[in-house]
Amino acid sequence: xxxxxxxxxxxxxxxxxxxxxxxxxxxxxxxxxxxxxxxxxxxxxxxxxxxxxxxxxxxxxxxxxxxxxxxxxxxxxxxxxxxxxxxxxxxxxxxxxxxxxxxxxxxxxxxxxxxxxxxxxxxxxxxxxxxxxxxxxxxxxxxxxxxxxxxxxxxxxxxxxxxxxxxxxxxxxxxxxxxxxxxxxxxxxxxxxxxxxxxxxxxxxxxxxxxxxxxxxxxxxxxxxxxxxxxxxxxxxxxxxxxxxxxxxxxxxxxxx
Length: 257
Description:
The structure is a single chain. By secondary structure, this protein is of the alpha/beta class. The protein has a single domain (about 5-255), classed as Rossmann fold, CATH 3.40.50. About 35% of the residues lie in helices and about 30% in strands. The protein has a six-stranded mixed β-sheet with strand order 6-9-10-3-11-12, with helices on both faces. Helix 3 runs parallel beside helix 5 and helix 5 runs parallel beside helix 6. The longest helix is centred in the last third of the chain and has 17 residues, at about 185-205.
C-alpha cells in the first residue's frame, strides 16, 4: 500500500513522564522515534519491556502522564502534537488500552452512546445503538446482555479486549492504536479478537492500525504490512514478517546498537 496517502506520522519524537512541580526533570523515554503509517496499513511495533512502547501509545492520545519534549505528531496532514485527547479522538484516533479501566455505574451501552456522540455528533437512542452493537457482539462471541454490564467491571481479560474491539468498530476511527491487545489472552480469545480486527478492517479498508505487542502470535493472525523493532526509545529496525521471525530466533539483543 505504498501508493496510499500518509495518514499518520511521528517525527523525531522525544517524550518523558510529566515533571512534578519543583521536582527534577526525568529522562526522556522516547528518544527520537520516527514512524509513518499510510492509509490502510497495519504496523506492528515490538520491543522489550521498558523500551517505550506504552509511552508511545500514551503520547499518541495525549495522556497527561507524559509530555512531548521535542518532535511532532501529524494526523491527516495536521500537526496534532499539542491537541488534547478529546480533540484527537474526535478527529479519528482510537487507543485500545492494555489495561482498560473499570467504570462503576456506567454501562457499556451508555459509554458507547456518549463516546459516539463525542466522536461523530450522533445521538442514537439506546435502542438504536443496541441494534447497531448486536452484530458486533455476535462476531466477537459476546452475549447480547454484555452491553448492559458496567464498563469492564468484573470482565475477564478476553471480555475487556473484545469490548475494546467493539468500541473500535462502532466509533469508526481512521487510525487505531492497539496497545498489547493480546496481553493476557489465551489462544482462542486471541483468535476471536484478531478476527474482529480483520472484520473492522474489511469494513474500513483505509483505516490504519498500529499494533504494539510482545508476541508474534498476534502478527501471525493479522499479517501486518510492516514490523518495527523498538529499543531504548527508538525504532531500530523495520521490515516485514522476517523481522518478527528473527526476533523469535535471536531475541532483542541482536537488534541493540
